[in-house]
Structure formats: structure tokens, C-alpha cells
């Protein structure tokens, strides 16, 4: 298992955006999204060792994380990420996590 690397995660997410025909964001904006995903994990007890969602729960989890990040972005007046990019960014973050397991 490889270790989570923020720089590689940022590159992975920006590449996913580019592949979808969207514009990449600067490192701080992408890192903000990554932090929000991990905040969701923390708030929902998903950072605990025994917290491993079933495959059936993964689609629901992705949707819940997208909703959470979208809500947090509305509160963050300095954020420049548009809501339409959130699903792509969350999917890419989750895919990056899967790639290092």
C-alpha cells in the first residue's frame, strides 16, 4: 500500500478535470476539496480502522460526499471551485485513494 501524497492527488484530480473538458484549479483550491473529503470521513467515523464501506455503499458514499463538499463550498466565500466540478473532483479523489490501496 502506497502512502497518500497530496501533490499526486492534486495532479490526479486536475487531470480528471482536464479529461472531462474542464479547467484545472490551482493547488490550494484542489487541496481545499481534498480536505473537505477528509473532513467528511472524520465527521462520519470513516477514518476508523474497522470503517470499511461495502461495495453497495460506495455509490451512496460518493453522492453524500459530493453533497457535503458542495454545502461546504457555499459557505467558503473565497473558494473558486464551481459546483459543476465537484462531482468530477470527488470521483477523482476517491479514485486516487483506490489507486494507492
Alpha-beta content class: mainly alpha
Structure annotation, total helices: 4
What is the number of beta strands?
0
Helix-strand topology string: HHHH
* Average of per-residue pLDDT values: 91
Shape: globular
Largest sheet: none
Low-confidence stretches: none
Q: Helix share of residues?
A: 55-70%
Tell me the distance between the termini.
5 Å
Looking at how many chains there are and whether they match, the oligomeric state comes to single chain
Radius of gyration from the CA trace? 13 Å
The fraction of residues in strands falls at: under 5%
Whole-number tally of structural domains:
1
Concise summary:
With 101 residues, this protein is an all-alpha fold.
Please describe what this structure looks like:
The chain is mainly α. It has one domain. It is built from four helices and no strands. It has helices at 6-19, 27-43, 55-75, 86-99. α1 packs across α2, α2 (27-43) crosses α3 (55-75) and α3 (55-75) packs across α4. The longest helix is centred in the middle third of the chain and has 21 residues, at 55-75. The chain is globular. The model has no long low-confidence stretch (mean pLDDT 91).
Q: Topology, pairings included?
A:
Blueprint lengths: L5 H14 L7 H17 L11 H21 L10 H14 L2
Main attributes of the structure:
4 helices, 101 residues
